Backbone:
């Protein structure tokens, strides 16, 4: 296999570091995959941290790319690492089938594609993330259509998840003056939530992202059913204790849903975390938060009724409503 | 546990489309999940700013390859940020640091006898006084007779060597290139 581009110095790339060969370039696929290693080194340099703990036999390493890149990550990159005596060869290769648009193959030359700079100006990032995950071409090619995109957003993201969060918080605001009741959560629900973390966690680790988010949304439907069956609007008149238990359980569901959905829908989860005053989103079941009256009312008035509601009730027909910049409070990315 | 996540490097000669995000998004899901679990995560990627298609586009538009790469690198950063990607580092392959590390690895492979030198015949344009990479040679496909590039014939999908083409033309000046010997490094596959 030839290791270099057959070029001269007018072309761009990495020069061969051997006397007499300086005007020749290293083959792009040798050079580009080495970027994973050079980026680690650069990260270490910039943060003062040690990257060597990521380059050893114990590290789990995931590589994500389109299927046309598989040979470069399964043959060339491990060969370079082995040849250079660096440990930490890829352990997980995650590669999808292709996506089509309105049943036609993407073609950049024919301008048949959904361009990212365009779609991010018009739609909420969580809507895009949701659609791409639930329709991920994990096993076969999948199709993107605007009709499906809008339908999936309206019926699932907004209709199921948004609806459950909104109806629960509105109820607490209306009947409890914004103070989360201190009710009892049935053990069977605690088990179910624990299992949800376990199931979804395993699916993510094994790179079954579509099934992972399907599992969460199946629980969202269970949560809505729970609300319907408990009928808190009747309980509030007939049994305060039952009603307290219902709403505490709903808040417990919401807090935990925000946590398991955080990898998929980080912007919505961040909003929910603000409303419920969750300190940090972690991957482990949490109790229903107990907000003092003042805190919760303040948050409800400032966030749920304004920003939060606007964010989760986004209608695709008026994309301009989402011009609010949601800060990513989680993590600092260094873009160089 | 330590988790390394490498997202593919989008090529900086055109905008990202949904297909790119579809294959890259799972990296961010993994990174967020493992961080929430308390694991140490290193999630990196960058823009691929090297290679022939960027220089060809730059030549066509009368700008430097660096300008093309800058434009799309900036656009990629904006898109990833808006979509909530949490790379620990998003860099680029025309970064000097990247070049130094790649050269170090190359020297290591050389020292470990994983690569060797070999003389091959390659297309050379005497008008431009330079060797031509695959895509800089155009001509007629020897299999189907249609116009083809030096790397592959789009018409019949045959993988080609630039010297296989009939009526070869240099993409830069249009003159006919000739074969000329030159020395290259090759990967020694049996040593891995």
Residues:
């Amino acid at each position: 296999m030839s290791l270099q581009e057959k070029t001269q110095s007018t072309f761009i790339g990495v020069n061969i570091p051997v006397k007499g060969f300086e005007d020749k370039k290293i083959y792009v696929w040798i050079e580009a995959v080495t970027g994973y290693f050079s980026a680690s080194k650069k990260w270490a340099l910039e943060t003062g941290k040690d990257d060597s703990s990521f380059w050893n036999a114990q590290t789990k390493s995931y590589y994500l790319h389109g299927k046309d890149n598989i040979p470069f990550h399964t043959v060339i990159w491990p060969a370079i690492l082995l040849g250079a005596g660096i440990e930490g060869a890829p352990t997980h290769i995650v590669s999808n089938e292709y996506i089509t648009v309105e049943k036609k193959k993407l073609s950049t030359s024919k301008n048949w594609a959904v361009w990212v700079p365009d779609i991010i100006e018009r739609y909420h990032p969580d809507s895009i993330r949701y659609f791409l995950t639930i329709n991920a071409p994990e096993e076969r090619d999948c199709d993107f259509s605007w009709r499906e995109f809008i339908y999936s957003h309206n019926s699932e993201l907004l209709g199921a998840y948004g609806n459950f969060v909104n109806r629960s918080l509105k109820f607490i605001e209306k009947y409890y003056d914004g103070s989360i009741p201190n009710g009892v959560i049935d053990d069977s629900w605690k088990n179910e939530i624990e299992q949800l973390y376990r199931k979804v966690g395993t699916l993510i680790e094994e790179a079954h992202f579509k099934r992972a988010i399907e599992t969460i949304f199946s629980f969202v439907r269970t949560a809505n059913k729970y609300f319907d069956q408990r009928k808190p609007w009747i309980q509030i008149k007939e049994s305060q204790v039952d009603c307290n238990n219902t709403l505490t359980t709903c808040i417990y569901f919401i807090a935990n849903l925000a946590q398991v959905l955080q990898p998929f829908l980080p912007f919505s989860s961040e909003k929910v975390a603000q409303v419920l005053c969750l300190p940090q989103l972690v991957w482990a079941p949490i109790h229903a938060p107990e907000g003092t009256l003042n805190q919760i009312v303040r948050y409800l008035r400032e966030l749920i009724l304004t920003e939060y509601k606007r964010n989760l009730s986004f209608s695709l027909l008026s994309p301009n409503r989402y011009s609010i910049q949601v800060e990513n409070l989680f993590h600092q990315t260094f873009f160089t | 546990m330590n988790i390394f996540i490498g997202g593919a490097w989008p090529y900086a000669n055109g905008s990202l489309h949904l297909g790119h995000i579809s294959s890259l998004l799972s990296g961010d899901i993994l990174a967020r999940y493992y961080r929430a679990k308390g694991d140490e995560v290193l999630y990196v990627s960058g823009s691929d700013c090297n290679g022939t298609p960027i220089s060809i586009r730059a030549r066509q538009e009368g700008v430097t390859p660096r300008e093309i790469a800058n434009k799309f690198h900036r656009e990629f950063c904006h898109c990833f940020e808006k979509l909530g990607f949490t790379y620990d580092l998003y860099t680029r392959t025309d970064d000097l640091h990247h070049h130094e590390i790649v050269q170090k690895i190359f020297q290591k492979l050389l020292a470990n006898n994983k690569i060797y030198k070999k003389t091959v015949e390659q297309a050379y344009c005497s008008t431009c006084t330079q060797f031509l990479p695959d895509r800089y040679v155009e001509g007629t496909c020897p299999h189907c007779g249609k116009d083809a590039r030096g790397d592959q014939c789009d018409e019949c999908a045959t993988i080609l060597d630039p010297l296989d083409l009939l009526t070869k033309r240099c993409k830069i000046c249009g003159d006919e290139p000739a074969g000329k010997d030159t020395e290259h490094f090759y990967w020694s596959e049996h040593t891995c």
